[in-house]
Amino acid sequence: MALPLDLTGKTALVTGGASGIGLACAQRLTRAGARVVLADRNAVLAQERAAELGGEALVLDIGDEAAVADAAARWHAREGAVDILVNSAGVLQRTLPPGQLSLKEWDFVAHIDLRGTYLCCAAFGAEMACQRQGCIVNIASVAGMRSGPLHSYGPAKAGVISLTENLAGEWGRSGVRVNCVSPGFTQTPALEKGFSTATLREDALVQSAALGRLVQADEIASAVVFLASDWASAITGVNLVVDAGYLVATPWQAYGGLRSA
User: Is 118 annotated in the active site?
Assistant: First the structure.
């Protein structure tokens, strides 16, 4: 008989919680019993989703240093430290070669995906460390682990993986665990946009995964909830890959592809 992941009595703040992987995390955390705060720059959507979940909305642009500091300070004054922080907010980039990828676009992606994640970790995680308890789960990507035409997004996500390890070492003795999840190609509105614009090919992605399918957003959320729970009480500083076997299958292409079942 499987034991439930019970987060009753815990407060979880999810950045980018109004859509995509962030929303899936918020839904899964709610089902596990946590009180969820959806932090998102889309105020209307955040309030709608929070109402559906019985949670709370927090309007937040993680790229705005002052806004993050102010949100954290106001929350700490009102509630103390959050128990769980899930950093899911992020942006994608166009698959342009360096000669066509403007520095403005490069900076924007890195500013949100790496700097924004750091700002939230520093603002909310520091209070966790002061109260000597808490858990942070950052959302990275397999793009941060392999080569690809994502010259800002990939390095930014690689930075999130490194940041996770650094903060796990920094705050471990303070009772704070810091881990990250690296999704593979996940069925989200952003991925569907990639298919519709022919930036990505669904059949090619399916062929490139050992399990022969895409990842579902709820599968990423399940990994996040596991890392946030007491089931993972001795786990910190890890990068949990949830990619339907994309990374292990890719090298097989040099040998003619995966064998048929």
Answer: no
Task: Please write the tens of the pLDDT for every residue from 32-49.
Answer: 999 999 999 999 999 999
247: region left, alpha or beta (phi > 0 left; psi from -120 to 50 alpha) = alpha
Distance CA 208, CA 202 (A): 10
Q: Rounded distance, CA 81 to CA 152, Å?
A: 32
For each of the domains in the chain, give its residue range(s) and CATH number, in order of start.
11-185+216-243 (3.40.50.720)
Given 118, 153, 246, 255, which residue is catalytic?
153
Summarize the chain as % helix, strand, coil (round to 5): 50, 15, 35
Using one digit for the tens of pLDDT, what is the confidence trace for 86-134?
999 999 999 999 999 999 999 999 999 999 999 999 999 999 999 999 9
